[in-house]
Structure formats: structure tokens, C-alpha cells
Amino acid sequence: MGGGAQNTGIFTYETLVHAISGAAGSVVAMATFFPLDTVRSRLQLEEDRESKSTLATIRELVDKEGVCTLYRGMVPVLQSLCASNFVYFYTFHGLKMLRARRNQTAGNDLLFASIAGIINVLSTTPLWVVNTRLKMRGVGQVQERNNNEYNTLYDGLMHIWKYEGLSKLWSGTLPSLMLVTNPAIQFMTYETLKRKVTASLRNSQPPAWIFFAIGAVAKAISTALTYPIQLVQTKLRHGYKYPNLPPDAGTLEIIFYILKKQGIGALYKGMEAKLLQTILTAALMFLAYEKISRFVFRILLHRPILR
Q1: Largest CA distance in the chain
Q2: DSSP 3-state assignment of 31?
Q3: pLDDT-derived band of residue 80, with 50, 70 and 90 as boundaries?
Q4: 108-146: b or e for each residue (b if 16 or more CB lie within 10 Å)?
Q5: What mean pLDDT is reported for the chain?
Q6: From CA 148, how far away is CA 160, in angstroms rounded?
Q7: Does position 95 have pLDDT exceeding 80, yes or no?
Q8: Torsion-angle region of 263 (φ positive above 0: left; ψ -120 to 50: alpha; else: beta)
Q9: 8 A C-beta contact, residue 82 and residue 90
């Protein structure tokens, strides 16, 4: 797979480079801002936790549980994120390369990102179910049967399969499929803004802060539009114990239950931490992705990156 590889199609060297760069960029970004994701999870899942500012919640967790609690479950999250973004970036850019580059539009980006999102959800949801439980172990409302002594993704997958059934590994799949709109909107916005910026600069390379800013704007828009579904998705993956609500309740049932019992504000609990975490993480991820992919193409292919 060298410079002679075909430039169109899914199974190409270029697509693989995009996938590896996207996966690496996401790991770098999540590792950097992981405590913010911990705050988001705790606010979403702990019904009795007061909804405070992100900084106040971090201080409270550190005072009561120690600094290590901010990084609980980081390894399986990074492993899942790496696999998830590899699948997403590979599918998205592979589909883009099937189209003539002159026909790239926001509509095409939205379509390809949606297809990539569906494939990603169906293939990686079990990883996210396990790492959500690992991250929240000993906190609140875990619904584990028998023992819960597992510490790796593989052991967690085997444990849930054995004691709770294969279907439990795909808990939260419906809201996850609904949330395909989140990365789809994010990627459409990012690609559209990047094309406009690149066109305005003619052939010169945009500075690094441009990619950071575009990534932040794209993620802010997508997160704000889809947050209530993200909250329900987290509850389904982790396990919930709401009085008078069956254990197999669906997405809409949980949403209406929360609205009835706690009000609309409860659907946005933890949103500040989520926005802060996802905006910074997405911005850094796209920055790292652009830098890594350009570096690899420049060194190994000795030609500009293909868009």
C-alpha cells in the first residue's frame, strides 16, 4: 500500500490513515479532558447529587473520594473510544472517497456521517455498556447480578453475556441510533466550515487554531441539540432504578418519567460539564487528527493530503 494505491474506494491506504488519525486524535483528546467526562457521568446518573458547576463538582469529588476518582475507568473508555472512532472515521472517509471530490456537499457529509454512525453504534455499543459500568462501579444504581468482579472490557463483555444475556450488551442502542444525529451534525458542520475556510485561504494551510475552533463550534451545536437523549442513553447503559418504572422501559418512557417526576431541567442535568468536555475534546481531537493525518501523508506518501 504505497503511493500507487487507488485514490477512490473504501479499502484504500488514505482511508486507513484517516481512521488511525481519528482514533489517535480522540484518545489524546479524551485522556486530556477525562475528568470532565467523569463529572458528566456522575451528574447524569446520581439522582441525589446536586447539580453544581463543573468546577464545584470536581472539588467535591476530590474532597470526598480523592483525585483518582476523576480517572476511574479511563483505560476501557480510551479503548472503546479508539475502536469507535476508528470505525467512524474509516467508514465516513471511505464513503466520501466513493464520491467525486467536486461533488462534496453538506448534504453528502450528513448522509455519510449518518451511515458511519449507524455502523459504529451497532458494532461498538457493547464496549460502551461495559465501560460505563466500570466507570460508575460502586456509585449509585448499578444493576449487576452475581458478582461484578471484572476490570477489563473483555471480562465485562463475558460477564454481562453470561449473567444478563447477550441483549443486555446492546442496552441503549435505540437512543444511540437516535444520537447518530449528533456526530452527523458535528461532521457536517465541521466539513462545511473547513471547506469554506480552506477555500478562502486559497492554497495556504489554515493555522492550527482554526481546526480547534471549527471542531469546538461543530460539537457545541450537535451536543446542545441532542443532550436529553444522551442523558437517557447513559442511564440505559448503566442501569437505572426508578420507582414504578419497569426495568425494560424504553427511551420515551424514561424521558416522560423524568419530565413528570423531576421537571424539564432534569433532562439537562450535567449539560454544562458535557458541553465543556465534548467541546474541548472534539476541538482537540480534530486538531490532533488533522496534524497526524497530514504528517503521515507528507512523510509516507510525499504528497498533499487528499480531501
Answers
A1: 63
A2: helix
A3: very high
A4: ebbebbbebbebbbeebbbbbbbbbbbbbeebeeeeeee
A5: 82
A6: 9
A7: yes
A8: left
A9: no
